[in-house]
Amino acid sequence: MTPAPPRGARTRAKLTVERLAKLYPAVTELVHENPFQLLIATILSAQTTDRSVNLVTPELFRRYPTAEELAAADPAEVERLIKPTGFFRAKTQRIIAASRKLVELFGGEVPKTMEDLIKVPGIGRKTANVILGAGFGVPGFAVDTHVIRLTNRLGLVKTRDPVKIEYQVCSMVPEEEWTALSLRLILHGRRVCDARRPRCEECALNDFCPSSLTRPNRRMRRGRPIGEAPNSDIKLA
User: Which residues are catalytic?
Assistant: First the structure.
């Protein structure tokens, strides 16, 4: 059973949706022209930056524009093309296996449901939600490391379990905002709410974020400043 969100989380969630909508577009930074390209790019994005992926995918997709062609690709050639993304041998195996499964199960097309997407090797709930939202316009809340960090810092959840975070946030946010909020949280995590050095003074959410380091006139209560989330990974001085 998924626990209830922290006290005040619904109000903070509403404010987060409103503020971030004014700052960021609801887009992924992975360059793609269709759901197949997005699926492959998302697999390649593991443990690297979107910029690195965007540098290699134009040539990769020029050589292998369809699932059928990538499924039949020479692994050595694919490794050469995607090497800058890191872990290129494992990623080559994954994108070729994913392409083969798309051909085998779905005629080379990317499916439009969570149930079918997670049948594809290398696709979990996070990646499936990205593909559903950014590829098909189907609402989905993708939970990556940035979303885990920000939802906890903002006091929207008190868990680091991706599935619990997905369900808790989706219970507080209108369905039509799921995809946009996830994409915007990722962008905000990259640009402002850094894991090690969050720039709270620049953050548009700092007036209600329980973990903010810049809110003025803090009073102490039970050994911590009022508003600091008990499970926050930022400790206030």
Answer: 126, 144
